Amino acid sequence: MTAFTSGHDVIRRILLATDLSARCDRALDRALALARETRAHLVIVHAFEEATPPSFSHATEVAPSWRAPPDAAEIAKEHIRRGLHADVMDVVENATVLVMEGEPDDVIERVVATEGIDLIVTGIAREGVFAKGPVILGRTVEKLLRRLGVPILIVRNRPRGPYTHILATTDFSDASANALQVALSFFPDRTLHLLHAFEVPHPARMTDLSRQIESFRTTLSTDLAAFVNSTVLPEEARRRIVGLVEYGKPAQLVREYVRDRGADLVVLGTRGRSAMLEALIGSTAKSILQTLPCDALVVRGPLQRMPRER
């Protein structure tokens, strides 16, 4: 059984996936802050499509001197460095900046494998002007979640400091247990609020609802304690968990908790490798991401469970 590790031993190399848009500045700031906090090495990756060769009719045109020879990778790399703030150059100068041709998910997957990445940081997808709703994850992130076991931090808000109020959700599944382990190991000095949301199936009468809610809450609070105890965690980490068992729809409860209590990070566990997003992360997790007003850490991967007593 692998020992539980935390802090600098867990996050050693962070990958920032950027499309150079203004929205990705927030992801950049968060990646830089995490790199400083954990003393991790930062790898900045930008993927671009292969340039279309010039047509024959323009082949004999003489290009200006600053375009000869054309080097899209170097131009993009310089663009990245110019866009970084002067006060973060100490981190950037030590970072690895990779500008590569290819589909973003293919490029990122290769870099994750070759660079030994522990955490991917990215921004939210662009929102179309005429879209009915925001595209929360985007095609690239959805593909990465299907193909990679590395946690992905989706950054929505501009960082105002380290994450201070972290909420994790659990449905008592292995996926949510793994997410709990990762969150506690990534943030070894933070309290983690662990929420289990429940609904009462087919209440007999509305007058009985309050009594049924309290009965479910009592039972599920015991289940939550058992869930935490069955997950491989040091006692120090267990003491940092604050359990919450609440009646209501998970997506709505998470959104209200973030709004009312000021949580700045929500941790979600994912399931499987299905091509469908609903099957990939579960309809509950997808609903949460669609309405979440803060950053999200989406986790998929191996799980450590306490051995059963013989």
Describe this structure in words.
By secondary structure, the chain is α/β, with parallel strands linked by helices. The protein has 2 domains: 1-51 and 71-157, HUPs (Rossmann fold, 3-Layer(aba) Sandwich), CATH 3.40.50.620; 163-310, 3-Layer(aba) Sandwich (Rossmann fold), CATH 3.40.50.620. Helices cover 38% and strands 18% of the residues. The protein has 10 helices and 10 strands. Strands 3-2-1-4-5-10-9-6-7-8 form a 10-stranded mixed beta sheet, sandwiched between helices. Strand 6 (166-169), helix 6 and strand 7 (192-198) form a beta-alpha-beta unit. Helix 4 crosses helix 5 and helix 9 runs parallel beside helix 10. The radius of gyration is 22 Å and the shape is elongated. The two termini are 17 Å apart.
Q: CATH superfamily assignment of the largest domain? A: HUPs
Task: Give the terminus-to-terminus CA distance.
Answer: 17 Å
Portion of residues in beta strands equals 15-25%
Instruction: List the uncertain runs.
Output: 52-58, 128-136, 272-280, 304-310
Determine the CATH topology of the largest domain. Answer: Rossmann fold
Whole-angstrom Rg = 22 Å
Pattern of helices and strands: EHEHHEHEHEEHEHHEHEHE
Helix tally equals 10
Largest sheet: 10 strands, mixed
- Global shape: elongated
Query: Share of helix among residues?
Result: 25-40%
The secondary structure category is alpha/beta
**The CATH C-level class name of the largest domain:** Alpha Beta
How many strands appear in the DSSP assignment? Answer: 10
Q: What is the arithmetic mean of pLDDT? A: 79
Number of domains: 2
Q: Reading side by side through the largest sheet, how are the strands ordered?
A: 3-2-1-4-5-10-9-6-7-8
Reported CATH architecture of the largest domain:
3-Layer(aba) Sandwich
